[in-house]
Each structure stands twice: as C-alpha cells, then as structure tokens.
Specification:
heterodimer; A: Rossmann fold; six-stranded mixed beta sheet; 24 strands; globular; B: alpha/beta; ABC transporter involved in vitamin B12 uptake, BtuC; 4 domains; 25 helices; carbohydrate binding (chain B); cell membrane (chain B)
Chain lengths: ~500, ~650
C-alpha cells in the first residue's frame, strides 16, 4: 500500500496559519491524509485541533498556507465547499434535528423528490442501505429524539456516507461512548478504511491510537510538532504532545496534613443522571473530579451547589446539612461555584468588571434595600488588584476581557464572599498557559488559607498535577478514588471507561 | 495604557461627549431645534409645559416598563392596567362611596396586583413575558369595561386636581413625572432590586448562580411596573376628570418605544431613567410639533414612525462606535465613527425639517382666520365626510383649517385641543372622543377666550359656542321603526353595538330600544359589540348566525358594522334578513342602492362639518350663534336613496 503514496493522497495541508484577535490559534500546521488510512490528530486541549478541522470543514478560512485536495489547491469557504470536495465532519455535538426521522436527517436538504413532493419510500430505502453499511440496526422511520448517543453518532456517519465523503473527520467520537460502543465504532471505522475512505481521528485516549490508527500527527501550541507511526510508545507520544515537564506547569503545593472535612456528600442521587455519590473535601485540600464528558460530573457539583435538584442523599458543610436545590443556602454555608460555561453562566457579559465582581456580595452589601456602592467599588478594586485582572478599568465590560481575565473575575466574586468551599468546573478551559498557571497559584493560595477546592477538569494532566485526591466518575457513579501518588493517566482512564459496580447495562435500573 | 486613554477622553469636551454618549439626547435636541425653526409657537414657556404634560402619562408608564425591560422582560399590559386602576378609583369613590384616599390606595393596589400576577405567571408559571402580559392586557381592559359597564365614570374632584397646575403655571402631571423619574433613577441605580434587574437582564443564569433570588425579584419587578401603570392611569384620568374604560389603549407600545429610544435594549441588561424620559419627550415633542405645524393627521403617523426608527438607529451606531474598547492610537477610527454619528444626526434633522415643511400646508397666511378641528378618528368614513364638509366650507370662507386625528383616544385629543389653545387659534372645533373627558381641555380654551364648537357629540362641564349634532337618540328610534315595519312587526333580530363606552353607541342603542317598545312582536335575541368596525361586524355576525340561524333582522349602530354583517349574511342579506345601519356613509348608501342594506339612518356628516366651520367662524367674529344646531337625520331606503346627498 505504501508504494502508491502519491496517487493515494486525498488531502494535504501545508503551513496553515490562523489568528484570532489576540490569539494565534494555528501557526504552521502540516498534515496529510491518504486513502484507506486512519490518521490520528493528537494534542492537548487548546493545541489547535478544533481550529484545524474547522478550516477543513469551511467554518474558518486560514490566513496563510495551502490546502490541497486530490493534489489540487482549493479554498474552502463554507460547508458547501467542503461537502463538494467530499470532506465530512462529525463533531462532538451532533447536527441532527431531534423531531425528524433518521432518514429525513440523513437526507436533510437533499430529500429525493418526485413531482415536487418528497419521495418518502425512496428516501427510507436509501437510508436503510446506508444504515446497513454502517452496521446499525435502526429503522429509517425512527425519530432521532428516541435514539441514544451511540446511535446518533452512527446516523451522523451514515449521513456523511450519503454525501459520498472520501475524507471523514471525527472529533473525539469515543469521548461519549461506553467501551462496548467504542468497539462497535472501531469496527465501522475499520470497514470504512477498507472501503478506501480517509479518516482523520481525534482522540485523547492514547490506547486507541495503537488499536485503530495508522499514523499520528501531534499538534502543540498551534503547530505540528511531529508525524509518527501509530505504533510509537505512549510515553513518546505524551512527550511530543506536552513538550514540557508537568511539574513546572502545575505548581501544586501540597499541605502536610489535611484539616477537618468541610464538604461532605453522601448518597447523592438524581435518578437517571447520577447515583449514590459520596465524597468529602477537607480544609486545605484540592479534590479533582475526572471522567469522560457525560459521566455526570457537572450535574453532581451543580446539585451540591443547589443549582439543580437531587432526589436522594445529603450535602453537609462543616457538619450542617444543606437544603437541596437552594443556591442561597449553599452560599450562606460558604459554597461557591465557578460554572463550566463561563460566558453563559458565570458572567454578565455586558456589565462592568465591578458589577460582576460585586454580584455575589450584592445582597450582603445592601442595607434596607440600598446598595453600598462605595463599599462595592472598594472591594472590587481590591480583589481585581489582588488577582491581577488585566483591564482598562473597573468600568470595562467583561465581554471585552480575555478568557483568563474573565475567569479571574468569576473566581474573584466568590473570593469577595469569603467562600470556604470553592467548586471549579473546568476552570482553565480555553485559557492560555500563562493564565492557567496564575489560576493554579490562586488555588494554592485558597487552600493555604484553609479553604477547600473541588475541581472538575477534562484536562487530565491538570487534574493529576493539581489534585491531592482524584475522584473518577463513570456513567453517573464514582468509579474510584486515587491518591495523588497513585494517580496516573492510565489509572484514571482505566476507571473512567470502567463500568462501576458491575451492574453493567442496567446501571439506571439498579437502585 | 488603556486606562490612560479612558481618562484622557473623559476629560475634555463635556457637552460633546454627553451628546455622543447619548444618542437619544442628541435626537431630542435636533428635534427641538427643528421644531423651533419651523414654528414660532413651539418654543414658548406655555407650549413647553404642554409638551411636558403630554409626555407625562407615557413617561410614567415607560418608567415602569424600564424596570421590566432592563430585566430582559416585556410588559404589554401597562396601558390596560392604567385604565383599570383609574376605573377602580373612580368607581369605588363614585359608586362604592369609599373615601377618596382609600380609593386611591385601592387603585394603586390594583396596579400592583396586576403586576404581581404578571410576575407570578412569568416566574413560576414559566410563561414567556410577552404572552403573560398580553393576557393581562386583555384581562385588564376587560375588567375595566366590566366595572364601568362601558361608560366613563366622573373622577373625584379632589383627585382631579392632579391634572391641574400648581401656583398657576406648573402642571401637576409634569411634577408627578419628574418625581416618578427620580424614583426610577434611584431604584435602578442605588437599590438592591435595581442592581439585580441589570444582572438578571444581562445573564439570568449567572445571576441565579451568584445567589440572586431571580424568581422573587421578577415578581417585584413586574409589581413595580404595575404600580407605575396605576400612577399613570390616575394622572391620565385626572387630566380628563373622567375614568375612561378605553383609556390608554396602545400606550404600552409608546412606553416600550420610549424605553428603547432612550437607549435600553430589548435583550435586557441596559437602560436608564434619564434615557426613558428623553424617549418619552421625543414622542411628545414630535406629536406637539406636528400639531402646531398642521401636518396632516395621516402623515403624522408616518413621520413619528420614521423618527422612532432613526432615533434608535442613531443610538445603535453610537453604541457600536463606543463598544470597541478604544486601544491607544485608534483615535482615527474613532473619529470616523463620530463622523457617522453626526451624519445620522444631520439626516434626522434634515428628514424632520424636510418632512414637516413639505407636509404642512403654508403657515404663512397672515390675516386669515385660523380654525382647528380635532376629530375623534379618521378611521371611519363618517368622520372623513365631516372633514370633507369642513374643508370645503373653510375654503369657501377663506379660513385656514387644521385637522387633527385623536385616534379615538381622549387623552390624545386633550393634547391636541391644548396645542390649538397655545397656538392661539381664533376658534376650535372639537368632535369629542368622550363628552366628559373633553371637558378640562375645552375649559382651558374657554380661559384663553377661544370659542369652541362641538360637533357630533357635546362637551360636558365646559362652555361651547355651539353644538352641531344629529340626534342619535331620535335616529335610533327611527331605525327601530324602519326595521320593525319592514318585518311586519314580528320576528327575531340581533343588534350590533358600537364601541363600548362611546356616547354614540349608548344613545343609538337607547333610542333603538325605546323605538322598539311599540313593536312587542320583535324580539332582540342578542346584543354584541363589534366596535363600529367592519371586520369585527363580519366576525361577530358570523358567530351570531351560528347561535341564531333563524333571525329576520339586524340593527347595526353604524354602517360599517352593517356592511360587515351583510358580508356574513351573504345571499340572505336583503332577502330573508333585513339589515338597518346608521350614518349614511357612501358605502352604506351604495349598499342601500344595491338592496343588501334595507335602510341606513343617515346623518349628514358633510353638513355637520360645514355647519360646524360656519359656526366657528361666526363665533370667532363675535357674532351670535345658536346653542344647539340640530342637523336632521333621515331614514334612507331604496326609495329615496337616489335623491339623498350627505
């Protein structure tokens, strides 16, 4: 196969560069894809993988560099262009319409027509052929809303095939699947590879590379830093991917002993979402929660904070039980939440830095309904200085701040409220390396001052580097707990893809 | 670095910066300059106070709506709630015998209660604010009609002083507006609930996760809006000395427009009391100025719409220029944006000046007598006929006639009559939306020694030089006689009523009922309002036919509804079902000719207009006029239609 390299080349990218205001997202990426291979894109969060596939799908146009499809240079200015070139992308969030049928979704916008009417019979028959090829047992007339995640993904793949895609880009397709489903997916990918489709496969799971991949391109800080065979040892891949030692990046100062338990959660359950969650976080301690996307991590911490209800179990702060689904009570007890969706849930984007910093303390700063504006201003100025928020002034709208500074504002509003237990949900997502370290320092200061931190992160090195203990969640349950010393990527991943408590497929029905 | 630039720019050019920061203020100033240039009557102390009075109700409503819009909601119910609160006050005081202070408290409580219901539906019922308050719009209006039984109720005198002036010059509504504005600014800027509104409007989820009690606060926010609506309703009713169940219709849209013109975003999170005040003033200056300039009633609406769009456009451009965090050295780009702002301001100025000077027909007539005619509506051929007769007579006599359209809104009519008065016209003709409500504004014309002639409907508690009217009661009786005799004195009929609460509907209905007493064989099986409107007439008649398929006759309190009913009846009209209308409009007479309308009790609207102008000119010249001039009504059927000419 390798002696026909030239004629087999489907796609080549040379020296792609893409900048956004204030950020260089891609800075010299080279990549190529052949017929019938699985080419893995490997890189940390924020390394530029998503930007790269968005330039291929037409969502972004590169500032410099060339894209060649089948040996000819092309410009991809939109989804139509990429479709015409036979490039299909399956994102982590599916582009399906829940209330249409599987067949309608596959042929959306291209439904076969007869006399101006949609020819349902032919559409369903065509869809059935495609679904058969993907190897999924779903009726074309099923409504998409009724399908589980794994099947949705198969429908997406069938849709890509219906477009006659020669290049299939899959963005972390295994992140949301159980191990059994992953095996099925791999079987489909192998079959497509045998049919001559070129597949760009993005994954964080190193063991999947050896199992499925042919070649690996590693991207770091927006540049491709190496192309290696998939058989390369994992340590070597990690070295290429991270490119620096983890010790420097995560300045965790571990306390000598831990204090009393500040937050105690027992038997917390919301039917169908998470089950029997129990853990405690002690003063001066950072507890990390690792797990795959969809494992229920965010749902658990939101329930702990009272933002969402739960069905059973208890949350106690310093021994005092908290009322469920009551943000006010959680705050009064000293819990703070820095939510996952910073812009959507953490900030009032068109309000000033000062107003955002004063949001949590607005109530306590009010006397007889009147806000102590001067006090709020002084407090905001103090905390902004302490956190080193880079801004034009306290009156600047937070929308115009960089991601790192926005996150400092979200954390700052909780610091003003003397928070004892701070819950951080993906605290460094989309933040540059420098600002990340500043936030880690902040976590250190908090724990040194006797607060407790509960941190969710999908960034595995971060969880390992910053946590004193790591809880691993899988399928809505705590799959295991690892002390800092025994927490390694492999150990965490092994738990993350496990099926806790061995009650397997009927995890929902058990309790 | 960036801090420096901020400081530098805020240092110099205070006024210029103030204008740039506030597009609406710029628009207001441009408007005032344009109006003063075009009309010598505009920039007088009296007229500016008029503008203040005319802005007051909209402004007070808009202050309440500002709270809601800042919190990313919307309140469509304020106009109805204002009318309901005023009705509650007048009814409890007049009919319930409750002491006036208690009645005022009840009115305010009504407003707050309506707001709480809105808030409850939005917060706990999870209804979209648009729908929840739309429902309240309907419920509020309905309840005020139920309580008042459709008729205006005289407002207690002690409360009516709210419509007067303080110390002989300062109008109390202006004072109330300023006080409410200060309260709004204080609540928004300094209080916990006010600051919460911005957070909720900016990002509700972030506010909730920061511990704000969003649901409870929404209750309070809508309650505030209801409270302000009640205040506006009381001011409105006291200006008219009468609580009108149909008052403040459509004011919610003016209030929302004022808030948005003032720089608030319907997406929430922004808005200020000062901006809202400016927005309300812009609307009032426009209406006042266009009245003074005698711009045609129809074109006024076009100009108002265009100015609203331009004012908001100006602010949007200004905001885009300001939104980019000006990095050092980008002053060139900033200047370009400023240039755009100035350009738009210039366009607004030219558009307003151009439109108004184009549209107002020659105010340069020096020695001519000037007469103002305020019609209740021009949305109905009858009144268009009055205007035609009046204009023809004015031309013949060589007087300058200005016609305004009150759009069936008593308070807008009060504004228009007030504007005529401050313009110092030689005489004013008023076709009252409501006889009671026209009283105060006609009284102030009396004070200024300007003779007033009423046409079609009388004015209560004020002096009029003459009342030119057809006899509606007699007309009703004649209509009953015509229909009953055609049916041979027996059969079932239905009555389509006019707009609830109008005197025309009451009098015609009363006359018809009286006339029908002589014919016991005729049974009225249904009476339903169709608001003098042809489309509604069609719908209501269609519904009635479902319930009463066997009817023999229809009496409609005007021709428009009769024509709607004929459409609903189809082939039956004029054959198995006889329809009698009222007014004798051209369309009505044509239907009589065609045989679908059996008869129309014809008024002679052209005559009304002609005689009214005639009397107004005589009164202005100091000649004697008859107190009441009755223009005869006449039943027009197929037999005499050929010879009839309204």
């Amino acid at each position: 196969m390798s002696d026909r390299v030239e004629s087999d080349e489907l796609l080549r990218i040379e020296g792609i560069r893409k900048t956004f205001p204030g950020v260089v997202a891609l800075d010299g990426v080279d990549f190529d894809l052949r017929r019938g291979e699985v080419h893995v894109l490997l890189g940390e969060n924020g390394a530029g993988k998503s930007t790269l596939i968005k330039t291929l799908s037409g969502a972004h146009t590169p500032d410099a560099g060339r894209i060649l499809v089948g040996g000819e240079e092309v410009r991809i200015n939109g989804a139509q262009d990429s479709e015409r070139l036979g490039i299909a992308t399956i994102y982590q969030e599916f582009n399906l319409v829940p209330d249409l049928t599987v067949a309608e979704n596959i042929f959306l916008g291209r439904q076969p027509r007869r006399l101006g009417m949609i020819d349902r019979k032919r559409m369903d028959a065509d869809a059935a052929v495609l679904l058969e090829r993907v190897g999924v047992d779903v009726s074309p007339r099923t409504r998409v809303r009724e399908l589980g995640i794994a099947r949705l993904q198969m429908v997406e793949i069938a849709k890509a095939l219906s477009l006659d895609a020669r290049v299939l880009i899959m963005d972390e397709p295994t992140a949301v699947l159980t191990s059994e489903e992953v095996e099925k997916l791999f079987a489909i990918v192998r079959r497509l590879r045998a049919d001559g489709v070129g597949i760009v496969f993005i994954t964080h799971h190193l063991e999947e590379i050896a199992a499925l991949g042919d070649r690996v391109t590693v991207i770091r800080d927006g540049a491709s830093v190496g192309q290696v065979p998939a058989s390369t040892p994992e340590e070597e891949l990690v070295r290429l991917m991270v490119g620096r030692s983890i010790e420097q990046q995560y300045p965790r100062e571990r306390p000598d002993g831990t204090g009393e338990a500040l937050l105690t959660v027992e038997g917390l359950t919301r039917d169908g979402v998470f089950h029997d969650i129990g853990f405690e976080v002690r003063a001066g301690e950072v507890v990390g929660i690792a797990g795959l996307v969809g494992a229920g991590r965010t749902e658990v911490v939101r329930a702990v904070f009272g933002a969402d209800p739960y069905d059973r179990g208890s949350v106690r702060v310093g021994g005092t039980p908290l009322r469920g689904h009551d943000v006010g009570a959680a705050m009064a007890a000293g819990i703070g939440l820095v939510p996952e969706d910073r812009k959507g849930q953490g900030l009032v984007l068109d309000a000033s830095v000062e107003e955002n910093l004063g949001l949590v303390t607005l109530r306590s700063a009010s006397r007889a309904g009147l806000v102590d504006l001067r006090g709020q201003h002084t407090a905001a100025a103090r905390i902004a200085g302490q956190l080193g928020v880079r801004m034009a002034g306290l009156g600047q709208h937070v929308r115009t701040l960089s991601g790192g500074n926005q996150q400092k504002v979200v954390i700052g509003k909780w610091l003003l409220a003397d928070t004892k237990v701070l819950i951080l949900d993906e605290p460094t997502r989309g933040i540059d390396v420098g600002a990340k370290v500043e936030i880690y320092q902040l976590i250190n200061e908090l724990t040194a001052a006797g607060a407790a931190v509960l941190m969710i992160s999908s960034d595995l090195p971060e969880v390992l580097g910053m946590s004193d203990r790591v809880l691993v969640m899988a399928q809505g349950r705590i799959a295991g707990e690892l002390a800092a010393a025994e927490a390694t990527q492999d150990a965490v991943m092994a738990l993350a893809v496990s099926t806790p408590q061995n009650d397997g497929t009927e995890a929902d029905g058990g309790h | 670095m960036a801090t420096d630039t901020l400081k530098k720019t805020s240092g110099g050019g205070g006024l210029r910066r103030l204008l740039l920061d506030n597009g609406a203020l710029t628009a207001l100033i441009v408007l005032v300059i344009a109006m003063s240039a075009l009309s010598g009557d505009f920039l007088t102390a009296d007229n500016l106070l008029n503008v203040g009075v005319q802005a007051a109700v909209t402004a007070i409503l808009a202050f309440g709506v500002t709270f809601v819009i800042v919190a990313a909601g919307i309140d469509l119910s304020v106009g109805s709630v204002a009318a309901l609160s005023a009705t509650v006050l007048a009814w409890t005081a007049a009919e319930g015998g409750v002491p006036v202070p208690v009645a005022v408290l009840l009115a305010v409580a009504t407003g707050i209660a309506c707001g709480l219901v809105n808030g409850f539906l939005v917060s706990y019922g999870k209804l979209p604010p648009f729908i929840a308050t739309l429902a309240m719009l309907s419920v509020g209006r309905g309840l005020s009609l139920v309580i008042s039984q459709g008729s205006p109720i005289p407002f207690p005198d002690s409360v009516s002083h709210l419509g007067d002036t303080l110390g002989g010059w300062l109008p109390v509504p202006v004072l109330v507006m300023v006080v409410m504005g200060l309260i709004t600014a204080f609540v928004l800027g300094r209080t916990y609930i006010g600051r919460s509104m911005y957070a909720i409007g900016g990002n509700e989820e972030a506010a909730r996760l920061s511990g704000l009690r969003v649901k409870r606060q929404k209750l309070a926010i809508y309650a505030f809006s209801g409270l302000f609506a009640a205040a506006a309703g009381i001011v409105l009713a006291s200006r008219l000395s009468s609580a009108q169940p149909q008052a403040a219709q459509g004011y919610e849209l003016d209030a929302i427009a004022a808030v948005v013109i003032g720089g608030a975003s319907l997406a929430g999170g922004t808005g200020k009391a000062s901006g809202t005040l400016i927005g309300a003033l812009i609307l009032a200056v426009l209406r006042n100025g266009l009245n003074l300039l005698s711009v045609s009633a129809f074109w006024q609406q076009v100009v108002i719409g265009v100015v609203i769009a331009l004012a908001v456009l100006l602010d949007t451009v200004r905001r885009k220029a300001g939104a980019a965090p000006a990095p050092a050295g980008a002053s060139g780009g900033g200047k370009g944006k400023q240039a755009v702002t100035y350009l738009i301001a210039a366009v607004v100025a030219v558009a307003v000046a151009g439109a108004t000077s184009l549209l107002h027909g020659g105010s340069d007539s020096g020695a001519k007598q000037k007469v103002g005619l305020s019609l209740s509506t021009l949305n109905n051929p009858f009144f268009v006929q009055i205007r035609a007769g009046a204009e023809a007579e004015a031309e013949k006599l060589g007087v300058d006639l200005t016609v305004t359209d009150a759009q069936n809104d008593a308070s807008q009519q009060a504004n228009q009559v007030q504007n005529f008065t401050s313009e110092g016209l030689s005489s004013v003709i008023v076709n009252p939306v409501d006889s009671d409500a026209a009283g105060p504004s006609v009284r102030s014309a009396n004070k200024a020694d300007i003779p007033v002639v009423a046409v079609d409907r009388g004015v209560n508690k004020a002096d009029t030089a003459a009342l030119v009217a057809s006899d509606n009661v007699e007309g009703g009786e004649l209509g009953a006689k015509a229909l009953a005799e055609k049916l041979g004195g027996k059969g079932t009929i239905v009555v389509l009523q006019g707009q609830a609460g109008t005197s025309a509907s009451r009098e015609r209905g009363a006359g018809f009922a009286a006339g029908l007493k002589k014919y016991p064989g005729i049974k009225v099986v249904a009476k339903q309002p169709a608001d003098f409107d042809r489309t509604k007439g069609l719908d209501v008649m269609t519904n009635l036919l479902q319930a009463h398929p066997g009817i023999k006759g229809v009496f409609a309190e005007n021709d428009e509804m009769a024509l709607g009913a004929i459409k609903a009846l189809g082939a039956k009209a004029g054959k198995s079902v006889q329809v009698v209308g009222f007014d004798g409009t051209p369309d009505g007479l044509k239907a009589v000719q065609d045989g679908t309308l059996y008869a129309s009790v014809a008024q002679q609207p052209r005559q009304l207009g002609r005689i009214a102008v005639d009397n107004a000119v005589r009164a202005a010249e100091g000649k004697k006029t008859e107190e009441t001039v009755k223009v005869p009504v006449k039943v027009v059927t197929e037999r005499n239609v050929a010879g009839f000419d309204g």
